[in-house]
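Question (not urgent): is this output format expected?
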Amino acid sequence: MREANVFPTYRGEMEYVCLGCQARYPIDELHYTCPSCKGVFLLEDTRFPELEKTPGSAWRDIFDLRAATKNPALRGIFRFYELMAPVVAEEHIVYLGEGNTPVTRSSTALERLVGQSMAFKNDGQNPSASFKDRGMACAYSYLRHLVAKHGWDNVLTICASTGDTSAAAALYAAYVGEPLTSVVLLPQGKVTAQQLSQPLGSGAKVLEIPGVFDDCMKVVEYLADHYRVALLNSKNAWRILGQESYAFEVAQWYDWDLRGKVIFVPIGNAGNITAIMSGFLKLLRLGIIETLPRIIGVQSEHADPVFRYYDQDPGHRRFEAVKVRPSVAQAAMIGNPVSFPRVAFLAEQYQKLGGAGSFAVVQVSEQRIIESMLLANRHGHIACTQGGECLAGLFKAKELGLMEEGELAVLDATAHALKFAGFQDMYFHDGFGPEFEITPDRKLANVPRLVIDQQDKERLSEDAFTVQAAQNVVGILGLDKK
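Got this back:
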């Protein structure tokens, strides 16, 4: 076990690579978009070919050994250190318990209802209760690296958010402390109370802007272009690196054998699907896996620009942002995803290596999203509305003939169900406005039922009250005596 606790000696040489003009920039400064053409970046380790000299079987042994480490720097996403940000020193790695989230196989009853073998990867079991912690752990570790290198005494971190990003950014900033401070921009009235409580509780400065996420993102982008701030949205390529760990963990969970696996991912700002494709491609390049799993992205009808792009004839595709409408999949309610150029670039590579059908995008209704979340959670999961979006995507994929018998669908539950409890409550109490296009099925409503009222409690003796309440329960449940 001693060897698993030893921090790696390998150090990469990383560069920002622009997907627009192919320009390259050093990583000793913060870059978000290309200074030459404003394109988005991916990060590349120019020493990666050296990693290819190690057999895939040896890498599997290394990562499996580290899975039991007691070293905090290697317990989380940096278990896969060489594949992620191998420029960060051990003492700069931030670990709050992120990563290693379980893949939970669905019950027999749910699989029978869906008609497919399936599982959820419950990323709501990350520290701030969403997958965003993966990217933040990497981004903040790199920030600590830069702070040490340059001696910076004041770094303001900033992000636009629909909730989960702000919660993660504020949490990690609070843990790291000086010289980092956190500011988050939220769309006014578009974030659940549970999600809003998180950055406030972590002490971040929370600013609200009328509109939707895209409006907040424009403000944050302007600030990052003109002022010295550390942008923590997925435009930050270090965030993407951290989120690649999702792919690594899925592969490791299935003992590095991804044959017959189909990964469903809600698209949103497109950072997660970018990272997952990139992660699987790295594993294939190193021979750690032999087969790419199929990937199916999912978007709501109310925010579906990536679906619309791939729904066009391949020879005449043109990306256009859309105006979003209200969605219960709130974290995916983004009409102009920052990472779309990354998706287009990586999807092309993915399909070349994975073959026809290895990448697809489907569109689902709001009605199906919320009811799929309820269905999943009534069968023992803790899926958020984005997890419901993935299950809705599985239903749609089956309708379209995209799933084969015997394939296992791995669905991404990006956050904890409790973050979106308000939408469940709205469904149960028929509280959705017409803009959501959701008509609740009263048979699915599950609300508390009063057994005995307060007047009876005050009128009866303590023993009589207990007996009467118990008899009322018997009547409600139809219990038989022993």
